[in-house]
Amino acid sequence: MARAMFTIWALFLIQILAQGANGAEGIPGLGVNWGALASHSLDPSIVVAMLKDNGIKKVKLFDADSWTVSAFSGTDIEVMVGIPNDQLSNFAGSYGDAEDWVQENVTEHLHKGGVNIRYVVVGNEPFLESYNGSYIKATFPAMQNIQKAIDKAGVGDKVKVTTAMNADVYESATNQPSEGDFRSGIHDLMKQIVHFLHEKNSPFLVNIYPFLSLYQNEGFPQEFAFFDSQSSTISDKNAQYSNMFDANLDTLVWALKKAGYPDLRIVVGEVGWPTDGDKNANPNNAKKFYQGFLKKMASKKGTPMRPGPMDVYLFSLFDENLKSIAPGNFERHWGIFGYDGKPKFPIDFSGQGQEKWPVAAKGVRYQEHKWCVLNRDVKNFSLVPDALSYACAGADCTSLGMGYSCGNLDVAGNASYAFNQYYQTRDQSVEACDFNGIANIVTEDPSKGSCVFPIEIESSGEMLRAMHILGSILIGLSLFHVTFM
Ligand SMILES: *[C@@H]1O[C@H](CO)[C@@H](O)[C@H](O)[C@H]1NC(C)=O
Ligand SMILES: *[C@@H]1O[C@H](CO)[C@@H](O)[C@H](O)[C@H]1NC(C)=O
Ligand SMILES: *[C@@H]1O[C@H](CO)[C@@H](O)[C@H](O)[C@H]1NC(C)=O
Ligand SMILES: *[C@@H]1O[C@H](CO)[C@@H](O)[C@H](O)[C@H]1NC(C)=O
C-alpha cells in the first residue's frame, strides 16, 4: 500500500515537474524594463512572481530602490540597476559618494542567496539632444567613479558598468547605415566611452524606437516600423533593410567600427510600442510590433552587420501614470501590462508567434468598486472646463484625445473621465470628488467600449514616494486650488 502510494505520489511529482518545464520560457537574452513612475505600484514580490510565470529572466530598473531590488533575492533573475541623471554630477564629483552607492546598492545584495545584479547603468539617455547637454560633462566621470568603486569592492568581473544611450548619439546623413557615425558634438566623448566599455568588457546599451521614428516623421513608411515587410526600403552596400530596427542598429555598428571597436557587444536597453496616446499607439499595433520583433529575436538572425542572437530589454513592463508627457501623450502607455499587471494584448515571450496571453500579476488588490463622474443633474456646463483642466493637471488624462482609447467621449464623458482619474489617483478620497459640487460618486462602471474608467490598485507602501512626486505637481497648482476648490 505504502509503495503504491509512493508510486502515485512520484508520478504526480513528475507530472508537476514536467508542467513546470513546459511552462513559459522566454527567449534567451530577453529582458524587460520595469519603471517606477506610477502613483500606485504593485508589490515587488507580485512582480517578481509574474516575471517568473512568464519565463522572463532579466530585468532592467531605473534606480536601485532597495525594496524593489531585494525582491529578487534568491531568484536567478539578472538585475540591471540604474543611477538617474540628476545624480550624475554628484558621482562625477565625489568618489566617496560613488563608493557609498556601490556599497549600499550593489555589494550589499551580492551575498549568496542574494540578488543577481549584473549591470549598473549610469545615467538614462543622458546625451539626449532635448537635454541640451545638461549631463554631457558628468556622465563619463560618474561611470568611471562607479567602476572604480565596483573594482575596489572586488566584484568588477561580475558587475558591469555602462550607460543607456538614446539612438540619437549616432546618425547617418544619408540614412544608410554605412554612413553611420557618432553625433558630431559628442564624437570624442563617445570614443572615450566606447574605449572604456571595451576595456572593461561592458556592453554598449542602446534604446531603439521605430515607434518614435513613425511619430516624428509624417512621411515615414509605416511598414518599415514593423517586421513583416517584404520589400526593402534601404539598400546599403550589400545589405538590404526592410525594417527600421535593423537599419538603426547597424548604423551603430558602423559608428563603432569607425571608432575602432567593431566587435563591441551591443545590448538593446529599450525597444517597444505604446498602446495609447497617439493615433499609431494601440494594442493591435503593439501586438504586431512585438510579434514581429520576438520572432526575429528567436530566429537568432540578428542584423546584416550583426548576425546572431541579441540581448534585448523590452520597454516596458507596466504603464506609468507619472511619466513626463513632454515627448507625447503615449509616454504613459508603454506597458505590455497595464498599471495593475493585466496584459493588454497577446504576446509570446518564447518568440514562436503564438496567440498567447501572458500571465497576469497574481494577488493584486484593487480599491472599492466606485467611480467619480460628472453629476447627471448638472445642466449648466459653465464650470466644466475649469474643473476638467484642474483634474487633468493633477491626474493622467492622456487617453482623452482624437484617436486615443477615450477619444469618442462627449463633453460630459470627458469631464467624468478626468474626475475619475483624479479621484482614483487620490485613493477615492471623498474630497477628491467634489469639483465645486458638479461631481458625484457612483457604483456603476462608467466605462464605454475601448474607454476604460480604471479603479486604482491598493498601493503597497510605495504611496509615500508617489505622493512625494504628486506633491511637487500639486505645489504648482496650489494657487488654483485655493481659488477653485
Ligand atoms: C541607493 O539607491 C537608492 C535608490 O536609487 C538611493 O535613494 C540611495 O541614495 C542610494 N544609496 C546611496 C548610499 O547612495
Ligand atoms: C532645452 O532648450 C529648449 C530651448 O531653449 C528649452 O525649451 C528646453 O526646456 C530645454 N530643456 C532642458 C531639459 O533644459
Ligand atoms: C451657469 O453657471 C454660471 C456660474 O455659476 C452662471 O454665471 C451662469 O449664469 C449660469 N448659466 C445659466 C444659463 O444658468
Ligand atoms: C475631450 O477632451 C479631449 C482632450 O482634452 C479633446 O480633444 C476633445 O475635443 C474633448 N471632447 C469634447 C466633446 O469636448
Automatic annotation (TrEMBL):
Protein's membrane topology: Lipid-anchor; GPI-anchor
InterPro entries recorded: GH, Glyco_hydro_17, Glyco_hydro_17_plant, X8
GO cellular component: plasma membrane; side of membrane
All copies of domain X8, residue ranges: 370-453
Protein name per the record: glucan endo-1,3-beta-D-glucosidase
GO molecular-function term, one example from the UniProt record: glucan endo-1,3-beta-D-glucosidase activity
Organism of this sequence: Lotus japonicus (Lotus corniculatus var. japonicus)
SMART domains to which the protein is assigned, alphabetical: X8
Major localisation: membrane
Keyword Signal: yes
Swiss-Prot/TrEMBL keywords: Cell membrane, Disulfide bond, Glycoprotein, Glycosidase, GPI-anchor, Hydrolase, Lipoprotein, Membrane, Plant defense, Signal
Places the protein is found: Cell membrane
Keyword Membrane: yes
Assigned protein family: Belongs to the glycosyl hydrolase 17 family.
EC number from the UniProt entry: 3.2.1.39
Catalytic activity annotation: Hydrolysis of (1->3)-beta-D-glucosidic linkages in (1->3)-beta-D-glucans
Single GO BP term: defense response
Transmembrane segments: none
